[in-house]
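Reminder: ligand-aware prediction takes two inputs, not one.
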Amino acid sequence: MTALRVNGPRLWDSLMDLATLGATPKGGVCRLALTDLDRQARDRVGAWLREAGCKVEVDGVGNMFAIRPGRDAKAPPVLTGSHIDTQPSGGKFDGNYGVLAGLEVIRTLNDAGVATGKPVGVAIWTNEEGSRFVPVMGGSGAFAGVFPVAEILAQRDVAGTAFGDALAAIGYQGELPVGGRPLDAYFEAHIEQGPILEREARAIGLVTGVLGLRWYDCAWTGQDAHAGPTPMPARRDALRGAARLVEAVHALALRSAPDGRGTVGFVQVAPNSRNVVPGHVRMSVDLRHPDDAALAAMDAELRSAAAAIASELGLECEVREVASFASCRFDAGCVEQVRAAAKAFGYSHLEIVSGAGHDAVYVARVAPTAMVFIPCKDGISHNELESARPEHVEAGANVLLHAVLARAGVSADRR
Ligand code: GLV
Ligand code: MN
Ligand code: MN
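Here is what comes back for the chain with manganese (II) ion:
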């Protein structure tokens, strides 16, 4: 059964090729969603998928679907994929690996002349990262019916550009309706983005689920004032409130150890001038936990910390939740198919819960889903230094190939 194997060097070359689009000096990639670089990457990967014999279609939020027909043309496809947008200081592997591993699955089936019973597809989901436009995993969430399409198209980036306008500008607002498409199953390959597989010396992570997440925009309001004449006790410094909340978020996540996470990664200070006491700060908060009740408790702690700080410093603080998803458990049958594939190859493996959100979280709401993780160097991701070993890249794609085949069905005869 493991006779069929992906071409590891070809997959690696595709990863390195795609990483030239938005390449950063430190070896990473900056390719924000719906920028011209995103268009170039979509064009390139779309062309590769078409050359591999797939029909490529685009839906109304820019999600791309490349389908290789099966013997039963009407059967829902077994889908794989991920995203090709990156963080501003992103790496070569986050998301890109899952899409190109899917491409490699298709190329491998073609090379071996394998006909599958069900169609096999590769999805490229729009704006997984949520860095330019909230919410995170917006394309897959719209596909799964979690977000109304109009809501996604209306989101604005910090410069005020609407998602819908950016999508139209790069020519990727497609005709296909968003969602409502039956899928047989969805498998997503991804780097772990954390340290566990490397620490435990395992090649493959059998991902059983994903931490729940809540995202907030917090708006602090004080009063702009001159940095010289304004005595310290008279100030209403919005940045002090924000600074205290950064510490409070860290502390509340620590109180939910070992699984709680709390991060402030985005801060905008206004007027952002050296000699003005800042009157306004906008900041993000990202809270995560595998247990939904614990995450709700973290939410309550965040709100009460913000209110207490605001009252002590004479500020106002509006805490607005802007995105969330509950913790997710993947389909037991699909996880077993990933396990069986890892075992068949003799790859060392481990069950793991994902700390990062993935498109699979939303696709899991409409189709049986599981993920395949591979280790990344020093567990580092969302960082230009993100790296993975070629043998792991190949192993994860082999597991993906055989998990897909287990669902899609292979006929012994060739095409
Ligand atoms: C997605 O990249 C996340 O924030 O987990
Ligand atoms: Mn990702
Ligand atoms: Mn990411």
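The chain has twelve helices and 18 strands. The pocket of manganese (II) ion (ligand 3) is lined by residues 87, 94, 129, 382 (CB under 6 Å). We will return to this case in the review session.
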